[in-house]
Amino acid sequence: RQENDATILEFYASVFNVKSKPITEKGKTFxxxxxxxxxxxxxxxxxxxxxxxxxxxxxxxxxxxxxxxxPDEYGLKAIVNMGNTQLHRxxxxxxxxxxxxxxxxxxxxNDWSEKYEDGELFWLKWRAEPRKRLTLVVVGAxxxxxxxxxxxxxxxNEKEATRExxxxxxxxxxxxxxxxxxxxxxxxxxx
Length: 191
Known about the structure:
Elements: E1 2-3, E2 6-15, E3 23-25, E4 28-34, E5 48-51, E6 54-61, E7 67-71, E8 75-82, H1 86-97, E9 102-117, E10 120-137, E11 148-149, H2 158-164, E12 189-190
Parallel strand pairs: 4-10, 5-10
Antiparallel strand pairs: 1-2, 2-8, 2-11, 3-4, 5-6, 7-8, 9-10, 9-12
């Protein structure tokens, strides 16, 4: 969308109650579920919006006012006031063409629990800080992160239709069925 000759890019850096794709870290494979309220007490005063987790490819920053973060009932919504640099123009073109269509984030998980469902390990995230950066990526951990350039969106209901297609799970629906050997809970986890 155009606002005072600015292009606005909206996306969800993470979504609530949706199972992530399988993630493998330090030899452990798991899926994540981020619960509503995870970002309620988060300090996002100096968060970056980047491309491909590259802190040298900044498209917005909360401290400068070009990135706004808004947790809502769906997830952590990011709104970037795109500039007129070559990086911004290229990013808009890649999103419009569908080359970039997913998002991710890096931060610290402060509170979580481990659950098992059908022998699969799940981490339920209760408190997290996306304090480092949100990023546009080719392959993200979560479906439904919904990159949208408002001025190019033909159907305003498109975002809502996309959300209905995701596999939604409520934290209480994840069963606590551990396999024979249950991994130990780590104190803190960087994502």
